[in-house]
């Protein structure tokens, strides 16, 4: 069409057309353009109108000022009103909160300023349901004048999706059983509290339900879950609202509390004591009044003093000390005590390497016959650690640490093997004059199911008769429920090994007939011996000791004593009927080189 009219206007045969002739010609051009453009324009308009009306997305067309001119049915349904009621309202009026209104205003400004599209998730007002989460898009449509812009608002329902995301987020940072924040959420909160610029005091409290396994196993996991919910509720009631209190469940029956602000240790302890007292109040479930106790570890310090890892470690240590002290109480973290413990723990951590590197040696204490102190009845073997930095360490300095690190059994095995090797050497040198060796069994080795096999292997290896070995134990090992101590002792007795029980009172002695222990010797120890270490021993102590010796004789046991300090004590014990003793009145200890001289001077008989 353009080429045809261009040719027509060009073909004027060199004549300039006057206005009255050009005007009809231009009108003819315009009509021709309308005739060609009209059908296409109308089709596009019809298609846009149909799409606008049928769209499942809510759409509002606005004038350049942002006032709604048209709204489709989908938008009306989404907002709970007819499209007619939306006409004349400003787009920003649809926002539910001041924050949403501000974001709509900002979006309009950006679209007017040339931005093609503005998208946000926000709350819009629903006529009946209140607030509704929606995904909003603001775009620009060209106006009928150059540079003019008509805003268009497009809205889709995001309420269910948003609520689902919120639920998933909540589940990700909350414990599903108690509804409290979980360990991950607690760590995030703690790190934020200790972040750059923190100036508050911080209190971290670890709480652990004492004996929860009894509740869980005795009444069932369902009851246990309800108890944990009750604990969570009580802790929240005490701590929430105080110093920005934040309570979380870490795992199992463990909980944590974070407090921030101007704090003193006394204030925190007062809250903890209130919580522990509330936990003691019974929770009634299924006819059972269930009361629980808890132990608590407390750390109070300035936020700038160290990081999260150090604070968490301090709380764990304080909780551990509270449980060691008897449970159902709190313990405040003590930095000085911690510094001393760190040294001990470092010592315990290297026991395995020290054993492998040959840093342990045997140390002996002779037991002599009180009727003839020049005659050895036995030699008691123990361990000494020749530490490269700390020097010589006695067993009481490292055995408790070995118990914690699981090294008790390896140390006990090494002690038994080396003691029997030494006994074999004495027998080869001194013959029948060589004394028996007595080895005190740590509890963990006494309950070991392989004890009998271990003893027999070492006796066979060194070609020793079983009666050359005395194994000493105490009431704690005999009554320990974790192993088959009684069965092991019965088998060892049948092999010929001599069994020794350390006692400090009648209750210990009566274990022998009660459990039919195949014991040959008892050794008096502790306060019953210490009471004689005076010029005039108390009459009740002498009477008690006399009763023990008399009862031991009735049971046909040989009676010895340990920890005897003076010759006067030894003489009193002999008068009372004690046959043998060891302690400083003979010698504190002897090394491997010295023990041969002791045997030579004090041969057995």
TrEMBL record:
<feature type="domain" description="GGDEF">
    <location>
        <begin position="200"/>
        <end position="335"/>
    </location>
</feature>
<dbReference type="InterPro" id="IPR000160">
    <property type="entry name" value="GGDEF_dom"/>
</dbReference>
<dbReference type="InterPro" id="IPR043128">
    <property type="entry name" value="Rev_trsase/Diguanyl_cyclase"/>
</dbReference>
<protein>
    <submittedName>
        <fullName>PAS domain S-box-containing protein/diguanylate cyclase (GGDEF) domain-containing protein</fullName>
    </submittedName>
</protein>
<dbReference type="InterPro" id="IPR029787">
    <property type="entry name" value="Nucleotide_cyclase"/>
</dbReference>
<dbReference type="InterPro" id="IPR035965">
    <property type="entry name" value="PAS-like_dom_sf"/>
</dbReference>
<dbReference type="InterPro" id="IPR052155">
    <property type="entry name" value="Biofilm_reg_signaling"/>
</dbReference>
<dbReference type="Pfam" id="PF00563">
    <property type="entry name" value="EAL"/>
</dbReference>
<dbReference type="Pfam" id="PF13426">
    <property type="entry name" value="PAS_9"/>
</dbReference>
<feature type="domain" description="EAL">
    <location>
        <begin position="344"/>
        <end position="603"/>
    </location>
</feature>
<dbReference type="InterPro" id="IPR000014">
    <property type="entry name" value="PAS"/>
</dbReference>
<dbReference type="InterPro" id="IPR035919">
    <property type="entry name" value="EAL_sf"/>
</dbReference>
<dbReference type="Pfam" id="PF00990">
    <property type="entry name" value="GGDEF"/>
</dbReference>
<dbReference type="InterPro" id="IPR001633">
    <property type="entry name" value="EAL_dom"/>
</dbReference>
């Amino acid at each position: 069409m353009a080429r045809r009219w261009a040719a027509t206007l060009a073909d004027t045969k060199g004549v300039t057309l006057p206005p009255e002739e050009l005007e009809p010609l231009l009108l003819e051009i315009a009509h021709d353009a309308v005739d060609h453009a009209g059908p296409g324009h109308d089709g596009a308009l019809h298609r846009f109108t149909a799409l606008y009306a049928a769209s499942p997305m809510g759409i509002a067309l606005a004038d350049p000022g942002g006032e709604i001119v048209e709204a489709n049915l989908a938008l009306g349904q989404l907002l709970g009103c007819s499209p007619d009621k939306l006409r004349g309202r400003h787009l920003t009026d649809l926002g539910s909160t001041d924050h949403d209104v501000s974001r709509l205003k900002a979006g309009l400004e950006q679209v007017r300023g040339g931005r093609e599209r503005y998208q946000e998730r926000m709350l819009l007002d629903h006529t009946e349901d209140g607030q509704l989460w929606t995904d909003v898009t603001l775009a620009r449509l060209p106006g009928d004048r150059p540079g003019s812009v008509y805003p268009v608002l497009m809205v889709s329902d995001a309420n269910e999706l948003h609520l689902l995301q919120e639920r998933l987020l909540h589940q990700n940072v909350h414990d599903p059983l108690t509804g409290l924040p979980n360990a991950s959420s607690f760590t995030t909160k703690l790190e934020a509290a200790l972040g750059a610029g923190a100036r508050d005091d911080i209190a971290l409290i670890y709480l652990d339900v004492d004996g929860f396994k009894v509740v869980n196993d005795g009444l069932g996991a369902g009851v246990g879950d309800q108890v944990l919910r009750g604990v969570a509720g009580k802790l929240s009631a005490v701590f929430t609202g105080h110093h920005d209190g934040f309570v979380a469940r870490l795992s199992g029956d463990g909980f944590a509390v974070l407090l921030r602000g101007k704090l003193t240790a006394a204030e925190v302890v007062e809250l903890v004591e209130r919580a522990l007292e509330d936990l003691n109040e019974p929770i009634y479930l299924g006819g059972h009044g269930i009361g629980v106790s808890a132990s608590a570890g407390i750390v109070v310090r300035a936020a700038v003093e160290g990081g999260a890892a150090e604070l968490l470690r301090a709380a764990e240590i304080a909780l551990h000390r509270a449980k060691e002290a008897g449970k159902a109480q709190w313990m405040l973290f003590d930095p000085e005590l911690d510094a001393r413990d760190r040294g001990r723990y470092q010592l315990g951590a290297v026991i395995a390497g020290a054993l492998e590197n040959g840093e342990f040696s045997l140390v002996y204490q002779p037991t002599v016959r009180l009727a003839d102190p020049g005659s050895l009845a036995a030699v008691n073997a123990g361990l000494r650690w020749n530490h490269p930095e700390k020097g010589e360490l006695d067993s009481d300095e490292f055995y408790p640490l070995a118990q914690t690190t699981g090294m008790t059994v390896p140390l006990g095995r090494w002690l038994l093997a080396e003691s029997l090797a030494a006994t074999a050497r004495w027998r080869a040198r001194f013959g029948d004059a060589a004394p028996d060796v007595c080895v005190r069994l740590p509890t963990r080795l006494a309950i070991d199911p392989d004890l009998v096999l271990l003893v027999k292997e070492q006796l066979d290896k060194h070609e020793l008769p079983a009666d050359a070995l005395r194994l000493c134990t105490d009431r704690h090992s005999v009554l320990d429920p974790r192993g088959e101590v009684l069965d092991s002792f019965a088998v060892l007795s049948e092999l010929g090994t001599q069994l020794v029980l350390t006692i400090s009172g009648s209750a210990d002695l009566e274990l022998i007939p009660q459990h039919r222990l195949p014991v040959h010797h008892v050794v008096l120890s502790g306060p019953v011996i210490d009471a004689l270490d005076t010029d005039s021993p108390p009459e009740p102590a002498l009477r008690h000791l006399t009763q023990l010796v008399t009862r031991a004789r009735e049971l046909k046991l040989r009676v010895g004593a340990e920890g005897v300090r003076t010759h006067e004590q030894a003489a009193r014990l002999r008068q009372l009927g004690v046959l043998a003793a060891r302690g400083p009145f003979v010698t504190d200890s002897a090394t491997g080189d010295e023990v041969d001289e002791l045997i030579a001077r004090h041969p057995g008989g």
